[in-house]
Automatic annotation (TrEMBL):
Signal peptide location: 1-17
Name of the protein described by the UniProt record: Uncharacterized protein
Domain of life, source organism: Eukaryota
Source organism of the structure: Chaetoceros tenuissimus
Keyword annotations from UniProtKB, A to Z: Signal
């Protein structure tokens, strides 16, 4: 059921998100996920392809791990291995949960696109500014979701970005950079980066 997303773009609206007669699949969805919202995957991928990146720093210790097999090391996995410090992908794959991260020991730094392009004039944005700024971000065809070329990825229908804002802000009116960071991590089920499947699940209310 996780992938059954109703395709009724014309019915998208923040205040009236449910289609009254959208068919059996949708009704079933509504019963199972009473907070489900209809999101068009082709619209969602336009947003994901703006926020996602090809590089992520996975190690939230910021490179503190010395990889010397210390017995009480908090960075080791239950199987005895280590968390990888960072990872790259040929296509944008993750929306990093952090605004920026540094690995002092490796002399590496990653400043995320979302933190610099959404929070351009301070640590808080209104819904209006969020929508405007996400829309202006550069799109790259990401890993996950329906294929979308950059030339077809212009955003006319803003409802998906508005929905993302609502998912991130929770009860607050505006969104802070800190809140965006912690919510991304929550939606990503505790992972350092948000991948497509968790992104679309959060938008449709199946988080
Ligand atoms: C949200 O941001 C706007 C614009 O900066 C501000 O006027 C408003 O008071 C803020 N709302 C809250 C609840 O902080």
């Amino acid at each position: 059921m996780k992938t059954s997303i109703a395709l009724f773009a014309s019915l998208l609206s923040a205040s009236n998100a449910f289609a009254p007669n959208a068919g059996i699949t949708n009704r079933l969805n509504m019963e199972l996920y009473s907070t489900a919202v209809e999101i068009e995957p082709k619209e969602a991928v336009k947003v994901f392809g703006r926020l996602a990146e090809k590089y992520i720093m996975l190690d939230d210790s910021g490179g503190m791990c010395c990889y010397s097999a210390c017995s009480d090391c908090e960075f080791r996995l239950p199987g005895g291995g280590y968390k990888m410090a960072d990872q790259s992908s040929a296509r944008p794959k993750w929306i990093p949960s952090y605004p920026e991260r540094k690995f002092e020991s490796m002399d590496k730094e990653h400043i995320t696109a979302w933190s610099t392009q959404i929070f351009t004039d301070g640590p808080m944005v209104t819904k209006e500014k969020f929508v405007e700024r996400v829309k202006e971000m550069k799109f790259n065809p990401p890993l996950g979701g329906p294929y979308m070329s950059a030339s077809a990825a212009g955003i006319e229908d803003e409802s998906t970005i508005e929905r993302l804002f609502d998912v991130l802000r929770g009860e607050k009116e505006n969104l802070t950079q800190h809140r965006m960071s912690t919510r991304i991590k929550e939606i990503a089920k505790g992972n350092e980066g948000l991948i497509w499947s968790d992104f679309i699940a959060a938008l449709t209310g199946e988080e």
